[in-house]
Structures are given as C-alpha cells and as structure tokens.
Fold:
Amino acid sequence: MKKNWPVYTLGALLAAGLIAPLASGAAAPGFWLEVLIGGLMAGVLYSLVALGFALIFKASGVFNFAQGAMVLFAALSLARLSEAMPLWAAFALSALIMVVFAWLVERLVLRALVNQEGVTLLMATLGISYFLDGFGQSLWGSDIYKIDLGISKDPTIILESVFQGGILISKEDLVATVIAAALVAFLAVFFQKTATGRALRAVADDHQAAQSIGIPLNHIWVIVWSVAGVVALVAGMVWGSKLGVQFSLQQVALKALPVVILGGFTSVPGAIAGGLIIGVGEKMAEVFFGPVLVKAFDLAGGGIENWFAYMLALIFLLVRPEGLFGERHIDRV
Structure:
C-alpha cells in the first residue's frame, strides 16, 4: 500500500479539483473546461522547459542549473537578431549559436570533468549559468525585447453551441502548445527509439562503462547539450512571445524544477506528465481552491498559482523522491 502513495495523492488532488467547483456551484461546466484547457496548455510549455533539465541529467547525471540561463540567452539572441533579419533566419542563426555554445561547454568545461563527482558537475553548471547571465547582458543588452511570431493575441471562442458563452482560448497559447507538443513528442521518440537515445541512457548510468564499450562520451555530451540548447531556444521563443524577453524570464525555468521532481529526473515521459499535472493543478487550485481558502482563513487571496507546484513537489519528495516515472535506486548491504 505504501508504494502507491503518490498515485493516491495525485488521485486525491484531481478528485478535489473535480469536486470543488461542483460542490460550490459557482462554476459552470464551460468555465471549468476553460480552466482545464488553460492548465493543459501551460503544462505543455512547462514540459518543454523541463525537457532541457531531463536531457542534461540523462547525459551527465547532474541537475543543470544553467538551463534557465540558456532559455534567456537563446530568447535574447532570437529577439535581437530578428530586429535585423527575418524571424526564420534569426531562429536558424540562434540555433547555430546554441550548438556552438554546446561545443564550447563540452570542450572547455565537461571534457576536463569526466568521471568527476556529481557535485563538481553541478557547480560547473552553476558557473555556466552566471557566465551566460553576464555575457548575455553584455552582448544583447538588458532591456525588455519583443518576439513577434505573427500570431494574433486576440482570444477566440470555441464550442459556443455546447456551452453557454463558449470557451475562451488564446490563439497564441494554442499555437505555442502545438509547437511545444510536437517538439516534446519528437524528443520522446528520439530517446526511446534511436541508438543515440539509448547511448545517452548508457552514459547517464555509468560514464566509464559507456566509454569501455565504445560510446564516445564527448560526442554524446555535445549532442545532448545541443539538443537542450535548441529546446531552450524554442522555450525562450514561446515564453518570450507571451511575456517579453527580459531577465525575469528565468523564473519560468524555476517552475520546471517541480515538474522534473514529479515526473522523475531521468524520464522524458515523466517531464511531459509532470508538466501537465503542474499546469492543470495550479490553475485548478488558483480558481477553485483560492476563494475557499480566502473565506475559511480570512486571507487576502491570490498567489496560490505561485507556490502550488512547489508544495506538490515537496509532497512527492517525501513519499516518492524518484518521481512518478523515475528509476528507484536500491542499495543492498
């Protein structure tokens, strides 16, 4: 029974999210569905950022503190380059910049740290993060920049014949979700079905063993950091279009931390599932549980969406530290 606690916890949260609006009688089914769809869209975008963490962890076995800085740097590159050239050309050049960055990271940092302790690699990614912050500001500037994807920001209404008043959906969010979902699906297939994906899993398990059977560790690290850089670019493009490209964009990457905790640091499908759970959970909590907590405890209200993901991640750390799809490590003595 104990090993199923995470499942019961998740089931209780989802059940509460379903029961709360119905019990209160304050929310129509159409409004509830609108919140659900909004949560799923946000969850896909969270999954996209979380994939960058999962990719690096698979290849090196260490949490990449630089992922947030990579998202910001890639978004800054795209925003500033798009001022002088078409968006597609700016995207291609920004992707090339991230690939060159991956090569430099492997050449100058990771190659010297092969088979070192995990905390050493962790500190290396922290140093890369601070370097990217400063270098990005020096190279591209520190103002707020825009990324125009050519998508109307006006919302659209769907299912008017089914629900009274219909369901309001942002066109920009919808297109961003489709782009993110396509990339997430591609990466999931890449890691599960290709020889390179299997090599990445082998490298994550044991660097020395992977090298002993002929897996080129240096090449694998360049590949995975390049892929993580392109993922950061897409994430930065999507979030930069929604929020503007600014240094607070790194806060988005922090939301990916509870996502990978829920899904498991070593699992690409887990990053997807964790993102959807966080996205739906925080929207439901803010809309349906917020008024209940305000009334019950005489609170000012609001802000639940900011801390809900971290509280849910804390629960999972207590009962299932490896996450829903992570691998359990059993030490025999």
Observations:
- The chain has one domain: 2-17+49-319.
- Strands lie at 155-158, 167-170.
- Residues 2-17+49-319 form one domain.
